[in-house]
Amino acid sequence: MYTNYFHLKQAPFSIAPDPRYLFMSERHREALAHLLYGIGSGGGFVLLTGEIGAGKTTVCRCFIEQVPDDCRLAYIFNPKLTVEELLQTICDEFRVDVAPGGGVKAYVDAINAYLLDSHARGHNNVLVIDEAQNLSAQVLEQLRLLTNLETSERKLLQIILIGQPELRAMLARPELEQLAQRVIARYHLGPLSAAETDAYVAHRLAVAGVQGAAPIPSALAPLIHRLTDGVPRRINLLCDRALLGAYVENSREVTAKILRRAAREVFAGDAAAAAGTPRPALRWPFVAGGVLAGAALSAAAWQAVPHSAPPAPVAVKAAAKPAPVAAPADASAQPLALGTQDEALRALGALWGQQLPAGAPCDGAPRLGLRCYQGHGGLYELRLLDRPAIIGLHDGQRLGYAVLTGIDDTSATLTIDGRPHTVSLGALATRLDGEYTTLWKMPRGFRDQVRPGDSGPDVDWIAARLAELDGKHAAPPPGQALDAPTRRLLRAFQVKQNLKADGLAGPRTYMRLNQLSGVAEPRLLAATGK
């Protein structure tokens, strides 16, 4: 109804799953990283929980698209089944033939035979169960028994349970303790932050084809976050109704008054949400869940890696050159002392062919044509950046730094004091602080943010790169301002690269433009051929 009024191609806040509108926040990326870690760690259960509308299905779909070619995947989305019905469904998903009437034993025997044969062919098998909070205790116990089949290296069936927060409470019951002990990674998907809410709204409007001023101003993001608790589905419901309200009032943009009225209509049964009042009862479990999830992953990852007694500094084995596969840790692995952040920064600068000044390396980097970029995220985020970075590594109460110079499916290469060392991803995950720093080459005349109407060498550089990558339009002449056509190209580029689609060029946009247009910079994945 309001799409033509706002010159949109379609309704931007439909709750129907549409891959074009996929928005992966840092939390969603971390949740995806936990699932991908789980299938590469040798089996057992992986647990993903979150409130209704938090984006669990979005993460699951991304995961399914990224499973390795050697994985056979079974997906169950309606788990209100008896034990026998569940086993029959598993057989159907894995295309295992079972003679009818054989009962539970016939299904279990057929699944075991299939798993052994599949393992002999070099295949892994992953069972994904959505809405897993609906599983009965008897069905969960049967699932545990299915994971008993294993080799000396791994279990032959890996199970991912996705469900609402009560799934965690279920697994805490005494009768399910044995299953809970087999959970090797767990993550509770919390809500978006206020900044992520802003990016989420801008992203969906950009995909829907917004031109010019956005009908939902960025200044409303804190209020949207407050009214929705940062839950994506609630954001969709609220923004959809708010756009309709603006259309009815013949307003070209949503106002705070329209937004609050929309909240009262959409969340009529939720007094706190309609009033924009934070709900502590919802927020505390998110925080606790995030802490516990991180601790669980670290414990699981550490237990999954052969190791001796916990070392003082991070224990890695020295190598003469970076190796694509980590050598197993053993008692001969010698602990190495990590460096300071400034030392690591100067080592990072050397990869860009520059000697950063001592004392304040990032302050001196611009004089060498470089900029520091600091962020927060796990291994998945670093893969997306695809550039060497300084990472903080915990050792008890101490924090040291190393340069992450390479990463593949199973291991990472760290450079410490000029020498490369290889560690498994599982061992690295237990020590990651989450903060990272990297470098990027800046164009001439760079400004921290280029806005509509700006002109100069940095605008010329952006316009030329966008035109080159688009391949359909000639680059505008030098000195031209950042106009509407170039901004449309910039937004389209940002949407395609899963960046904040605000039409304003910032560091992440510059970094991706550098990579795609062939600017000579070191890459994190290049050494592994990824």
TrEMBL record:
<dbReference type="InterPro" id="IPR036365">
    <property type="entry name" value="PGBD-like_sf"/>
</dbReference>
<protein>
    <submittedName>
        <fullName>AAA family ATPase</fullName>
    </submittedName>
</protein>
<dbReference type="InterPro" id="IPR027417">
    <property type="entry name" value="P-loop_NTPase"/>
</dbReference>
<dbReference type="InterPro" id="IPR052026">
    <property type="entry name" value="ExeA_AAA_ATPase_DNA-bind"/>
</dbReference>
<dbReference type="Pfam" id="PF13401">
    <property type="entry name" value="AAA_22"/>
</dbReference>
<dbReference type="InterPro" id="IPR003593">
    <property type="entry name" value="AAA+_ATPase"/>
</dbReference>
<feature type="domain" description="AAA+ ATPase">
    <location>
        <begin position="42"/>
        <end position="186"/>
    </location>
</feature>
<dbReference type="InterPro" id="IPR036366">
    <property type="entry name" value="PGBDSf"/>
</dbReference>
<dbReference type="Pfam" id="PF01471">
    <property type="entry name" value="PG_binding_1"/>
</dbReference>
<dbReference type="InterPro" id="IPR049945">
    <property type="entry name" value="AAA_22"/>
</dbReference>
<dbReference type="InterPro" id="IPR002477">
    <property type="entry name" value="Peptidoglycan-bd-like"/>
</dbReference>
